[in-house]
Design a protein that fits this description.
- This is YXWGXW repeat-containing protein.
- Pfam families: WXXGXW (PF12779).
- The structure is a single chain.
- The protein is of the alpha+beta class and 182 residues long.
- It has a domain of 89 residues.
- Helix content is 35%, strand content 15%.
- The chain has a seven-stranded antiparallel β-sheet, with helices on one face.
- The relative contact order is 0.12.
Amino acid sequence: MKKFLAVVPLILAAVSPALADSNVGFDVNISVGNRPSVVVPAPPAVVVPAGPRIIIDEPPLFITPPRLGFYVGVDIPYDMFYISGRYYLWQDNHWYRAPHYSGPWGVVKYKNLPPGLRKHKLERIRYYRDDEYRSYHRDRDHYRGKRFKPGKEYKKHYKQERKHDKSEYKHHGKGKGHGHDD
């Protein structure tokens, strides 16, 4: 090995004037040790889409088209579904799942969707949703289908707050100490 390394500079010295006049490149790589001579490229990075940011001013209404058997969101600009205590969303060619209708949303693989959701094509789900929504919209007060609106616990809390506010209002007197005119 030492003899080989000593010969390399002599070869380079003899060849370099000829190479300097030509348009030819010359490169010498010497590897010493147990490193593999083949460079293994790193695997490509896996791009996972970030969860979407869903903006809904109030809890959405969900109805259940009889042909589907699960809740579909209506009056919102999203394809959102409620099944077994979870929310599912189809957006930007990805499925997402969340514990709440406003997120946080995480990507879910198609094979991990609930069977009811996998059973139907998205176009068919939209068709059944729209058809059932027309029925709901025509006779909202007498609608006989299943419906669900998340956040009933907030209504209970709101009622308790109103009750508390009314008792304070009575306790302090009408308008006294609250900036109201007598």
